[in-house]
Amino acid sequence: MKKTIIFDIDGVLIDVSKSYRLAIKKTVEFFLNKKINKKEVEEIKLKPGFNDDYDAVNGILKKHNNKVPLKNIINIFQKYYLGKNLKGLIKNEKLLLRKSIIKKLSKKYTLTIFTGRSRKEASYPLKKYNIKKYFKIIMAVEDVKKKKPAPEGILKTLKRLKTKNAYYVGDSIDDLLAAKKAKVNFIGVIPPYGSRNLRKVLKGKGASVIINNINQITKVIK
Q1: Using the 8-state DSSP alphabet, how is residue 34 labeled?
Q2: Domain span at residue 117?
Q3: I need a surface site. Which of 38, 123, 145, 160 has the fewest CB within 10 A?
Q4: Does pLDDT of 222 surpass 90?
C-alpha cells in the first residue's frame, strides 16, 4: 500500500502572505482604527490554538483590550479576504509547491489535504492551479467537529484510506500538535514569509524534520 501524505494548504501548498495573513492585519486595523505591525500577526500565529485566522484576529484584539463579537470579525475578515465575486485578497494566492513535484509525488504516494479552510476557500487555489485532481481526499473545516490542533481531520483521513502510515505536512504549531496526537510523522515547512522563530518553536515542540522550502519535500520523505 502506498504511503499517504496529508498536506495543509496555507503556507505549505499556497502562499497566503498577501491573502489570509493580510486579511488578519486589515481586520484587526479595522476594529482598532489604527495600523498594527505585521509582527503581531506572526507572533500570534506562533502560539498554539491560533491556527484559525478568526481566532488570530480575536487574539490580537484582546491583546489590545478590544472585545469584538466573532460574527463581526468573520464578516469584516471575509469582506477583505473573499471580496465580491472572489475579487478580494484571495486572488493574490500563489502556488508554493511546484506542480511538477505534486504530479511526481502523486504517482508514488496517496496525496490528501487536511486544512482549516472552508471547502469553498480550499477549492479556489486548487482549481486555479489545476492541482485538485492529484488529491484523493480534501478534509475541510466542515468535515470536522474540532479544528486543529485536534487530530480529527487526520484520523478521519487515515480511517477512510484504511491506513496508519502517513505524513502530515504543515507550517504551524497546531499542525505539529495535530500530527502528534494522530501519531503520524510530521514534516514542518517554513513558508517564504515565515517568522525566524517558527523553526525554533517547531523544534521546541519536538519536530524532527523541518524544511525551508516545500519543494525540498522529496528529499525528506522515504
Answers
A1: S
A2: 4-15+94-220
A3: 145
A4: no
